[in-house]
User: Which sequence fits this backbone?
């Protein structure tokens, strides 16, 4: 969904980001329950899992950026950037603090890793709180706190920082009409506005915590969790919440809660549908599972590879059919090679860490 929305705008593929946030919290919680570690060891392994390949991608992007013509080194807002500046921002995970660099050229997808690092830093606190909660009232109280943090952060972003959620500009489907525009009270020189506030973890904490809560509850009674997931009421309710959140994403005021509604609606909806079709579509499910093993590398590199392929095709200067063929060929070859390279590096790092 995420790669697809980068290829063609105007549909709800951007909502794959929210599914990932919920599932990330879910699997981290399950793992922490089943294989307890010290939090120091947990943090070391998390960092080793995501940062080395991320930093390599950032360096690769800087090399490509240094070779690109100046016209291609502008963000979609027309702000010029330099390769050293973008590299430093990526290395120190601060790309998201400036709206002109968050979706900067060459490596625009890297904004998401900085967001994840913030959420992973919060995971021990959120997980420990849910794990200690012995009653439904306690679970509800913790959930109210994290949801309040997300909604208040988003309200500040929308109404004080001219914010617009990441992906909201795509809309849901073109037939649903256009979405609202962000407020325009701040000067362009104010860096932390528009989508930048939505690139930091407080505006996504509720979505991530929903996955953590689900993982803790699932670990306590997996059979009951499966029954709830496969119940017809779950299908209806999750679809309704998802569509409601997607509708709210069209309106400025709705941005305060729309992403949370999309996340907690779409995730169980997709899981329910996948579970239902698994008996008759096992090869498809297995293929998705295989692709999942490569997904992080694909995510890191696909924008960088597409940018490089486009630049290579333009440099050839051939007619449109040849240019398109060259771009596709370079993109496919580059994606395969870059993902294999990152996976090899990742394997070496994991071997050293474990």
Assistant:
């Amino acid at each position: 969904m995420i790669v697809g929305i980068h290829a063609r705008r105007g549909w709800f593929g951007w909502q794959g980001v929210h599914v990932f946030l919920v599932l990330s919290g879910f699997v981290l919680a399950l793992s922490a329950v089943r294989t307890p570690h010290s939090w120091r060891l947990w943090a070391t392994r998390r960092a080793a899992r995501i940062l080395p390949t991320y930093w390599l991608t950032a360096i690769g992007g800087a090399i490509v950026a240094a070779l690109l013509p100046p016209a291609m080194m502008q963000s979609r807002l027309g702000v010029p950037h330099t390769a050293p500046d973008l590299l430093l921002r990526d290395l120190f995970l601060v790309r998201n603090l400036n709206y002109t660099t968050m979706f900067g050229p060459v490596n625009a997808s890297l904004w998401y890793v900085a967001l994840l690092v913030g959420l992973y830093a919060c995971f021990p606190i959120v997980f420990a709180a849910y794990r200690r909660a012995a009653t439904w009232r306690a679970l509800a109280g913790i959930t109210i706190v994290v949801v309040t943090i997300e909604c208040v952060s988003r309200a500040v972003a929308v109404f004080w920082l001219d914010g617009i959620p990441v992906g909201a500009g795509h809309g849901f489907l073109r037939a649903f009409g256009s979405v609202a525009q962000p407020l325009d009270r701040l000067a362009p020189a104010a860096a932390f506005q528009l989508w930048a506030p939505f690139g930091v973890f407080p505006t996504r904490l509720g979505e991530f915590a929903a996955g953590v809560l689900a993982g803790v509850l699932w670990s306590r009674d997996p059979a009951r969790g499966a029954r709830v997931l496969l119940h017809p009421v779950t299908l209806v309710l999750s679809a309704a919440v998802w569509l409601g959140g997607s509708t709210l994403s069209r309106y400025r005021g709705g941005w305060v809660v729309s992403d949370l509604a999309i996340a907690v609606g779409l995730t169980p909806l997709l899981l329910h549908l996948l579970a239902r079709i698994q008996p008759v579509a096992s090869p498809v499910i297995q293929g998705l599972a295989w692709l999942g093993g490569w997904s992080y590398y694909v995510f890191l590199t696909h924008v960088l590879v597409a940018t490089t392929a486009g630049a290579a095709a333009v440099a050839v200067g051939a007619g449109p059919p040849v240019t398109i063929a060259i771009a596709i060929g370079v993109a496919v070859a580059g994606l395969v090679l870059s993902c294999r390279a990152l996976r090899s590096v990742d394997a070496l790092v994991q071997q050293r860490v474990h």
Remarks:
- The two ends are 32 Å apart (CA to CA).
- DSSP finds 14 helices and no strands in the chain.
- The chain has a mean pLDDT of 92.
